[in-house]
Design brief:
heterodimer; A: alpha/beta; 13 helices; B: Cell Cycle, Chain A; two-stranded antiparallel ribbon; 3 helices; MinE_sf (chain B); Cell division topological specificity factor (chain B)
Amino acid sequence: MARIIVVTSGKGGVGKTTSSAAIGLGLALKGHKVVLIDFDIGLRNLDLIMGCERRVVYDFVNVINGEATLNQALIKDKRVSSLSILPASQTRDKDALNKENVGKVLDDLGKLFDFIICDSPAGIEAGAMMALYYADEAIVTTNPEVSSVRDSDRILGMLASRSRRAELGLEPIKEHLLLTRYCPKRVAEGEMLSVEDVEDILSIPLLGVIPESQAVLKASNAGEPVILDTDSDAGQAYQDVIDRLLGETIEFRFLLAEKKGIFSRMFGG
Amino acid sequence: MALLDYFLRKKEKQVTTASRAKERLQIIVAHERNSRNKQPDYLPQLTADILVVLRKYIKVSDESFSIKLDNKDGDLNVLELNIELHDEHDSS
């Protein structure tokens, strides 16, 4: 059975789409059949981050309305053949999605893929609720910053009460914390919440820590998910996330500031 | 100077902005979690009153009755009553 994973956060701009793209591509590179779904109806962007924006013909809402088949709407990734993208529609109203029709599409996709990654829109409106409703697992993307952490906690409440698993009294959604835009140097200086701080507050298991990195902007500029930039710290941190999702135990990297010189180490703590 | 900075910074450690952020978050998150799960104060009394009225007409055991106040979308409250009715009637 396919693993349905929602990438969610509550707050916007924390890295949901960047993470969805990196994780989707990373899993596909490991040989798994993966579909990435953009749930941000009206504001699609996953296509741009994946670099397939010129190839969008049909979208999620077309499939729901029966105007296109799944096969027509799915865009096969040019880099990895086991990866497909189902783009959000750009113009239609977001009420197009409901539990029944989304459930049907996910059912059909579940027969074709091992992983279904749902890129959630920001907020706690209908679109975000649809993205998380059928999830088996949730990657809660959080920045080490007060408003993002608070919103993540809000989303954790939704996962526990508004999902299909909650409504049917099934085993709860498996939650993962993905901390993004992490600056070890600022943490060391007491200017940024540390990994432990955020773990303390949200109390969910840590899946990964992605350092603040110039590679992320370069990746989205080029439409090449950052996991392909294997020399970059962010790319390597996402690779670790993939390995952990696949059940491996990988030590966390990029948590400490660059090594200081001997003098500052002696005198600067 | 670095030595002096070192001692000054040590003292400041207690009031870094990160530790203030953590403290504020712990308080607000705990508060919001509470209000997420909390039932209003009147609910136990309301439950008792409803049971009294119901029992005037039908036989209701404590197990076959449940009451729940749900908050949907943050602005819509739904009061949900669940009463299991048994075959035999008793109007006493």
